[in-house]
Amino acid sequence: MRADIGVIGGSGFYSLLDDAEEITLTTPYGPPSDVVTVGRIGSRSVAFIPRHGRDHRFPPHRIPYRANLWALRSLGVRQVLAPSAVGSLKAEHGPGTIVVPDQIVDRTSGRVQTYYDMGGAVHVSFADPYCPSGRAVAVSYARAGEWNTVDGGTLVVIEGPRFSSRAESRWFAANGWTIVGMTGFPESILARELALCYTSLSLVTDLDAGVEAGEGVTHDEVLAFFARNVARMRTLVADTVKALPEERTCPCGSTLDGIKLPFDLP
What we know:
This protein has 266 residues and is α/β, with parallel strands linked by helices. Helix content is 25%, strand content 24%. The protein has helices spanning 65-74, 132-144, 166-174, 184-193, 219-243; strands at 5-9, 21-23, 36-41, 44-50, 79-88, 97-100, 103-107, 148-151, 154-158, 179-181, 197-207. Strands 1, 2, 3, 4, 5, 6, 7, 8, 9, 10 and 11 form an 11-stranded mixed β-sheet that branches. The protein starts with a strand and ends in a 23-residue tail after the last helix.
């Protein structure tokens, strides 16, 4: 089985494909979060992994990020879409907003964030973490789907599994950051280390605790809000998948050019 495009589903996004084949994979980094389902959306072959597992058994800091991305690449995937639930740090971007970020800030701790931790140093560019081609397509189809759409912005990724304190939330907002989540890193840098295109589709489920009028949120509330919007999210993901370029002309594929790797990639 081969796939062109990978989708990693976040909280509440546990399935995508109809008439799909399930594949159990192993990787040098252990098994991925769940079996990988491979099917078609239009003319495109797609592999789907639920980030937390279909039963949401992996908290954000325990997700096998390296195994997930490696499994997708081993199937032939070169473009990845990553829908997720986030909190908003700006009152004007309320629940139901789709943010397609163009920057990221890592506030996690202790997560393994590289494939190249032995055999020699490998330094990859991460100045612009997201694929410009994927972002453009996602923004276009989010607007066409009548989502309140934010083109660009900064995602700050916290360690979790707890939510932010009000003081932390106010600090993030004071820095001018846009949304807060728990899973966008190291997923994004691992995709870059494998020369994959990576695009985040972030659905705002709540105003974060430090935002004016924001309240402390619970996990059940996040899942409930996402569940009410998951059908629209599947439509947005499917539309974006079908419109992604078949030939990559973005810089993502050339990330590793000229770099001596300590092992072969799948």
